[in-house]
Amino acid sequence: MTNTRRPMTGTGRPMPGTGRPQPVLPRSTGRVAAAALALTGLLAGAACSGPSTSAQQVGEPAVTAEPAAASPSAAASSGGGGVVPLTPEVTKQLDATIQQLLSKTKVPGINVVVSTPGGTYLRSFGVADKISNAPMTPALSLRIGSETKTFTATGVLRLVDQGKVGLDDPISKYVDGVPGGDGITVRQLGEMRSGLFPYSSDPEFVNTLINDPNHVFTPDQLLAYGYKHPAVAPPGTQFQYNNSNYIILGKLIEKVGGQPAGLFLKDQVFTPAKLAQTVFPVGHEFPDPHAHGYTDQTPNGAIADATDWNPSWAWTAGAIITTLSDLESWAKTLATGAILTPATQAQRLKTLPTGDPGVGYGFGLFDNNGWIGHNGSLPGYESVAVYLPEAQATLAMLLNTDVLYQGSEPSSLFANEITKIVSPKHVYSIPPATAAPSAPATPSGSPSGVRA
Q1: From the CB of residue 130, how many other CB atoms can be counted at a distance below 10 Å?
Q2: Which residues are paired to 63 by β-bridges?
Q3: Which of 304, 246, 262 minimizes the C-alpha distance to 24?
Q4: What is d(CA 196, CA 244) in angstroms, rounded to the nearest whole number?
Q5: Mean pLDDT of all residues in 168-182
Q6: To which H or E segment does residue 342 belong?
């Protein structure tokens, strides 16, 4: 059946606007860094869509903050590094803003943390299961979509540090069968500038996935959907969020690293980064306890429980699962290069324009108005994990839906509103709303097709 709904963009669009793959795929910071955080004003809303669980309810302090400032404006004037002190007044404003946005967007639940040298804001709002009404809690595991790309990119860079891969080598040196592979470098794949057609924009792929979300795809099968189309641009000339790039990099990891991608990432990335609750699933398995995820990326647009849908279609572009604490830790590790050499991290941080104001993309990460990191989205779940070096501040969140609100990804809306409060000079932006491509034959910075 031909899907007429919005195209799913790859497993993650660049921060500015994560592209939603045409119907059912993990989207991630699909369109540059702005993708994962976005929205503007917030209508005064009612209460949260479900019970609110503070950190105190799970045995840890909800907010540790300096006592000062009587108002957000006062806090802003006294804050250092571009982030306001997390005073009781600022905490109340964050609570109210998140609850109003939760009610307005109908997001079932969200886990969110803002950490700064002066304090931490940690909250869970809403429900993890709409049937049982079990509350969201920080300990729950959720899928992260395109945030996965940051791990895959780091795996490649670990191989660079080991002298096994060169960023400016042609991908044909490591992976066979890539169209024009002699002229596409490893760096261009990581920077989303390969010029290849994204498999998640292919109509046949989208229809297969939408009609059978438990379909098991191999990496080669995924790439074949894209390879049958001509390139959309010469290598290195155009930014285009593209899941195909990160499937190819996954194949590189397996070929050079000598292990299945999931095992390699565990040994070379999760373990060195001390991420004990982060996993790369082989199938649709999900660590317990976990939140249920809800999507409208279905044949008829009805809301469905996507918790156990098979993420093989996203593989090294969007399949990873983690918890809020691991995601918060990873955001800083990613932005500071804690498990890479300084020289290699410097290469990763060389961002290029994405076409969205204030947003650049480096090797598997966005710079969104100073916030470094990525966002992610796939059926049922969204994530944002970013770090502001100037303030040594981290923002991380996990949501259990990917249902758009007035054309915007909910994770982007929450990130945008939160940063308006905590970092008014560094607001995570959303790209201007644009109509989704009517046909996947015109891939652009916002990939059409399933998002990851």
Answers
A1: 18
A2: 121
A3: 304
A4: 8
A5: 98
A6: helix 342-348
Rounded to whole angstroms, the Cα distance separating 449 from 207 reads: 10
Distance CA 449, CA 11 (A): 10
Question: How far is 178 from 98, CA to CA, in rounded Å?
Answer: 44
CA distance 262 to 264: 5
Confidence band for 81, pLDDT divided at 50, 70 and 90:
confident
What's the pTM value of the predicted model, to 2 decimals?
A: 0.84
Average pLDDT over residues 118-127: 97
Tell me the C-alpha distance between 300 and 260, whole Å. 36
**Residues sharing a CB contact under 8 Å with residue 80, sequence separation 6 or more, in sequence order:** 118, 391
**Element at 124 (helix H, strand E):** strand 119-126
Has residue 168 got a pLDDT over 60?
A: yes
Instruction: Tell me the pLDDT tens digit for each residue of 187-208.
Output: 999 999 999 999 999 999 999 9
Contact 215/204 with Cβ under 8 angstroms? no
d(CA 122, CA 115) in angstroms, rounded, equals 8
CB 87 within 8 A of CB 422: no
Query: How far is Cα 90 from Cα 86, in angstroms, rounded to an integer?
Result: 6
Nearest-10 crossing angle of helices 219-227, 203-211: 140
